[in-house]
Design a protein that fits this description.
Blueprint: H1 3-24, H2 32-54, E1 60-67, E2 74-80, H3 82-105, H4 112-131, H5 135-153, H6 160-191, H7 196-204, H8 211-225, H9 234-237, H10 243-252, H11 254-264, H12 266-270, H13 273-296, H14 300-320, H15 324-352, H16 357-360, E3 363-364, H17 366-369, H18 371-384, H19 391-407, H20 416-445, E4 450-451, H21 460-475, H22 496-526, H23 532-537, H24 543-560, H25 563-568, H26 583-588, H27 591-596, H28 601-649, H29 654-681
Parallel strand pairs: 3-4
Antiparallel strand pairs: 1-2
Domain NADH:quinone oxidoreductase/Mrp antiporter transmembrane: 132-406
InterPro entries: NADHpl_OxRdtase_5_subgr, ND/Mrp_TM, NU5C-like, Proton_antipo_N
Pfam families: Proton_antipo_M (PF00361), Proton_antipo_N (PF00662)
């Protein structure tokens, strides 16, 4: 079978599995799990085969005209280079792991058939984006991912949180898609084609008339899809969906689609130095802001959500200095260890009965209850913190090396300003990343207090997947040299300067967090337990301590009532009482409250956009009701009155009609005579 045929089957098989699963979900539920796993697993195997055959050599390109348009043609085409081949492998492997994991995680969920079908459809759409060689066909996969995300995030639609989160995710990403679509049409107009190969040829020949405008329009869509500032606010709220959804959509696929799109069309963005600087600013702000926000979150999934935003900003930063090899390398590495982190978080939630880190910090022995999750999460957090020799160290160092080369003038592809921005923000974010990774590990696995609930051993479908994903989290960084051909033949080895900067910052962040955690633990051990007596004496204690206790308790109670906890736990354990040992409060100080609220960007957007739009809608409604409808009602009322007057004249009496006719004739005769006299006198 030819490589082209195998490549066509890669997105087609999950699509067929999705259709079959959605159709047979109610009538033949026994087929749902095989239809969810087998097509996705086969697609992953075929993706590996395509990657091996492609071998990092010449891109595989083929096309057939999809439909005549009369102007710019739309082709059904494939364009598979080394980057596309590797990203497709990542999508297939992670999607297979998520489908396997979900069979146990959602085994009692009555809506599992539709969930599995939507995950397969989503996988097919992402693979279409990866392999597509035509931007219009890519747009189809791009939008199908958006609608699947809407349904999957809103899986627990009975709750207000899930409904609001799914709607917010859909609307915010659509807000970016509007300029994105305009940018696609502008790009195709300048290039005369939607084909990626022809567009790249036009860019190489200097044929783009509006490179900055096109790049900025496309960047708006990327910011929405890849959750970059200022369109990142939907991703933390999207954690209201099931945890396996977060592992697939919010780690390895949809949020990475924007980064992959820029990497695919990097010459278009590199044609404008202004666009690269804007991209660097966006990446720097997103990196630092998301790192601070992650450090202040109590919900374990929201920590990982903000972490994802920051790591995507690393990739965007690499693209801002025109190095797509480093960006895609970090995309692949991050996809593996972040999927592991989300799935491991699902095991923790399943065992602890809560999403709250504050509640977990008051549980003893959670690590012993779930040893598989403990060890694999430790591996993934080390990779996230970029500690050598784990995968995250090599991929993050590749980004810092690219930024350093641009900053010091060793690369002419990007402005030096972009390099300095990405380098400075990257080093600072390395410190913040290690800090919130250490905080998560300490609060989740080194809690002190009541014994953690024991629900027995977790299913093998969940723990086995964790160990499978732990392999690339450890070893993928070492594969950079063997896979150099797939990365444009570029070496992705760290340099001494960036290694010292990045690793040193990470070590400082982790050690500082550990020291502050020890101090917070000592204070929490001496503080009285929360309860009626605690409430009575709260006024006598410092306001900061009382506020910390009440906030931590409220957060724990809120997290314990999330719909996912109700879905996957056997019973709700009582939220342990007492203050939480949280080092983030001391680390962030007065900034903690603002970071926990995402720096109030939702409130800012509400005041700047939502309220004015609602006020304008109310004004339009008033004008429609009181002005336009008044004219409509007036026209109807006038017609009724005129009809009433005419109706009174219709008596049916012939003598009345003749009398009226005679009177009218007399009036006309008199009027004629008067007018004749007037005319004769003049």
């Amino acid at each position: 079978m030819s490589t082209t045929t195998l490549a066509v089957l890669v997105p087609l098989l999950p699509f067929l599995g999705a259709v079959a699963g959605l159709l047979l979900g109610r009538t033949a539920p026994g087929f749902v799990r095989p239809l969810a796993i087998l097509p996705t697993l086969t697609a992953a195997v075929l993706a590996v085969t395509v990657a091996v055959r492609q071998g990092g050599g010449q891109p595989i390109s083929t096309a057939t005209e999809l439909t005549p348009t009369g102007s710019v043609p739309i082709d059904l085409s494939l364009y598979i280079d080394g980057f596309a081949a590797l990203v497709a492998v990542l999508v297939g492997v992670v999607a297979t792991c998520v489908q396997l994991y979900s069979t146990a995680y959602l085994r009692e969920d009555p809506r599992y058939p539709s969930y599995a079908g939507l995950v397969s459809l989503f996988t097919s759409a992402m693979l279409l984006v990866v392999y597509s060689g035509d931007l219009m066909v890519l747009l189809v996969g791009w939008e199908v991912m958006g609608i699947c995300s809407y349904f999957l995030v809103g899986h627990y639609w009975e709750t207000e949180a899930a409904r609001s989160a799914s709607l917010k995710a859909f609307l915010v990403t659509k807000l970016g898609d509007v300029p994105f679509l305009i940018g696609l049409f502008a790009l195709a107009t300048d290039a005369g084609s939607f084909r990626i190969t022809k567009i790249l040829g036009t860019v190489a020949a200097g044929g783009l008339d509006h490179p900055t405008l096109i790049a900025l329009l496309l960047l708006a869509g990327v910011a929405g899809k890849s959750a970059q500032f200022p369109l990142h606010t939907w991703l933390p709220d999207a954690m209201a969906g099931p945890t396996p959804v977060s592992a697939l959509i919010h780690a390895a696929t949809m949020v990475a689609a924007g980064v992959y799109f820029i990497a695919r069309l990097l010459p278009v963005f590199a044609a404008s130095a202004a666009a690269l600087v804007v991209m660097a600013v966006m990446a720097a702000v997103t990196m630092v802001g998301s790192g601070l926000a992650a450090l202040a979150q109590d919900d374990i999934k929201r920590v990982l959500a903000y972490s994802t935003i920051g790591q995507l900003a690393y990739m965007t930063g690499a693209l801002a200095v025109a190095d797509r090899s480093a960006a895609v390398f970090h995309l692949l590495s991050h996809g593996a260890f972040k999927a592991l982190l989300f799935l491991g978080a699902g095991v923790i939630i399943h065992a602890a009965g809560t999403n709250s880190l504050a509640a977990m910090s008051r549980m003893d022995g959670l690590a012993k209850r779930i040893p598989d999750a403990f060890w694999t999460m430790t591996i993934a957090l080390l990779a996230l913190a970029a500690i050598p020799p784990f995968a995250g160290f090599f991929s993050k160092e590749a980004v810092l090396v690219a930024a350093e080369q641009a900053a010091t003038g060793h690369s002419d592809a990007a402005p030096a300003a972009a390099g300095w921005l990405v380098l400075a923000a990257g080093v600072l974010t390395a410190l913040l990343t290690a800090a919130y990774a250490a905080r998560l590990w300490l609060m989740a696995f080194r809690g002190r207090g009541a014994a953690a609930p024991d629900h027995g051993k977790e299913p093998f479908a969940m723990t086995g997947v964790l160990w499978l994903l732990a392999v690339p989290s450890v070893a993928f960084g070492l594969a950079a040299d063997p896979l150099a051909d797939w990365f444009d033949g570029r070496a992705l080895t760290p340099t001494l300067a960036t290694s010292v900067l990045g690793t040193g910052a990470a070590v400082i962040g982790a050690m500082l967090t550990y020291a502050l955690w020890q101090r917070a633990t000592a204070k929490a051990a001496t503080a009285p337990a929360a309860g009626p007596a605690r409430a009575a004496t709260a006024a006598e204690e410092p306001a900061a301590v009382a506020a910390a206790v009440s906030a931590a308790t409220a957060a724990a109670e809120s997290a314990a009532e999330t719909p996912e906890v109700a879905e996957v736990t056997h019973e709700h354990p009582a939220v342990p009482a007492g203050p939480a040992a949280d080092p983030a409060r001391a680390l962030l100080g007065p900034l903690h409250r603002h970071a926990a609220a995402g720096f109030h960007l939702d409130a800012v957007y509400d005041r700047l956009f939502v309220r004015p739009v609602r006020a304008a809608a109310r004004l339009v409604g008033f004008l429609d009701r009181e002005v336009v409808d008044t004219y409509v009602r007036g026209a109807g009322t006038g017609t009724r009155l005129l009809g009433g007057l005419v109706r009174r004249a219709q008596t049916g009496n012939v003598q009345s009609y003749l009398s009226a006719l005679l009177a009218g004739a007399v009036v006309l005769a008199i009027a004629t005579a008067v007018l004749a006299n007037v005319n004769a006198g003049s």
